[in-house]
Amino acid sequence: MNLLITLPVVAAGVIYLIRKQREYSWGWANNKSSLKGKVFIITGANSGLGYQTARALAKRKATVVFACRDLIKANEAIQCIKEEVKDANLTALPLDLEIFDSIKSFCHDVNREFPEFDCIINNAGLSMKEPFVTSEDVEVHTLANHLGHFLMINLLLDLIKKNNARIVIVSSKLHEKGTINFETFGKLVEPYTTKQLYANSKLMNFYFAKELYKKGIDVHVCCPGLCYTELFRDYTIKFYHWIVFSPVILLYLRSAEQGAQNIIHCATDDENDTEKNPSNSYIVMNCRQTKSKINLSDDVSEKLWIESKKLSKIE
Ligand SMILES: NC(=O)c1ccc[n+]([C@@H]2O[C@H](COP(=O)([O-])OP(=O)(O)OC[C@H]3O[C@@H](n4cnc5c(N)ncnc54)[C@H](OP(=O)(O)O)[C@@H]3O)[C@@H](O)[C@H]2O)c1
Ligand SMILES: *[C@@H]1O[C@H](CO)[C@@H](O)[C@H](O)[C@H]1NC(C)=O
Ligand SMILES: *[C@@H]1O[C@H](CO)[C@@H](O)[C@H](O)[C@H]1NC(C)=O
Ligand SMILES: *[C@@H]1O[C@H](CO)[C@@H](O)[C@H](O)[C@H]1NC(C)=O
Ligand SMILES: *[C@@H]1O[C@H](CO)[C@@H](O)[C@H](O)[C@H]1NC(C)=O
């Protein structure tokens, strides 16, 4: 046979097999048991990983609350899922994690409409090309990715305890590159890079989980892996980037549905290994408990809690 034909065919076959092997190693949340009557609150459920998580939970008959800053987008997402899951029980509630008043009113809504929730998934997040200081006087990554959720969970803490509800925190492997500097916490101080601000906020997520765990909350942290979502919407991706980065894409880029498996696993699995918790630096990656390279210090975790209370003006 002609080499010009066989070579590309063999190469394509090998690439296909490598990709399939990678996908297999990323794991899948296979638990199909019904979640009827269980209430899951997901921040940022209108897009990307949050959307795929909501979709999977809806298929398992769960009730899902879409906590979103844009109700039009949230209701569009709900309609999309309803086309697939006719009797899905989905509701949108407004929540803008960059505005303290919005967070407070969201918590009132939850108290009124869904006081008996089972799980809250802190999923919403962003990465801005041009970081800025918001109207709450807090740098945007710190606020949207960490502090907003911190305030929300604190305002719901009594209910969380009463319901024995689970909290899932969507961090990232990039937390390993993060640092927390209390001198500049919440501020935008030169020199900075977006990547650093993002990584710092993902480390804060992990520390927040550690402290919640220490307070007796059932909390799970995960990294979804590098996923194809709207997270990079602020950046222009040119066609040649796809070619230049094709090996990375082949080896690392997951679909949103694939990445969401980690969140679904954390939200619904009953794994109870007391050693493998966020306080001991365990994070779910590839649907498995994995130890982070970072040892989370108790001092930082306690201080972050105190400073976050100050910054969100609850003390
Ligand atoms: N994609 C990845 O490779 C990757 C890797 C590791 C970790 N993660 C984490 O996964 C989570 C989900 O991200 P994604 O990849 O699914 O991105 P995405 O498609 O952009 O979804 C992010 C969601 O967060 C919402 N959001 C952002 N800022 C908000 C705010 N101030 N108030 C309320 N909602 C807000 C967005 O709402 P709008 O649509 O209204 O903007 C959107 O629904 C994030 O925490 C991210 O850090 C992602
Ligand atoms: C949707 O779920 C909520 C919370 O579990 C429940 O109170 C409500 O009756 C459900 N609605 C329908 C139509 O099943
Ligand atoms: C599957 O999910 C259900 C509901 O969350 C849970 O009760 C059950 O223990 C799970 N099964 C496994 C093997 O984790
Ligand atoms: C996990 O198991 C320990 C010890 O058996 C128990 O004290 C704890 O309440 C369990 N946690 C959950 C979330 O089931
Ligand atoms: C974390 O702690 C373990 C056990 O105390 C130690 O072996 C390891 O070197 C530490 N890692 C870092 C990055 O400090």
Automatic annotation (TrEMBL):
The keyword Oxidoreductase applies. SUPFAM superfamilies: NAD(P)-binding Rossmann-fold domains. Transmembrane segments: none annotated. InterPro entries: NAD(P)-bd_dom_sf, SDR_fam. The keyword Translocase does not apply. Pfam families: adh_short. Gene3D superfamilies: NAD(P)-binding Rossmann-like Domain. It comes from Chironomus riparius. One of its GO terms (molecular function) is oxidoreductase activity. This is Uncharacterized protein. PANTHER family: PHOSPHATIDYLINOSITOL-GLYCAN BIOSYNTHESIS CLASS F PROTEIN (PTHR43157:SF31), PHOSPHATIDYLINOSITOL-GLYCAN BIOSYNTHESIS CLASS F PROTEIN-RELATED (PTHR43157). Signal peptide: none annotated. Keywords: Oxidoreductase. It comes from the Eukaryota.
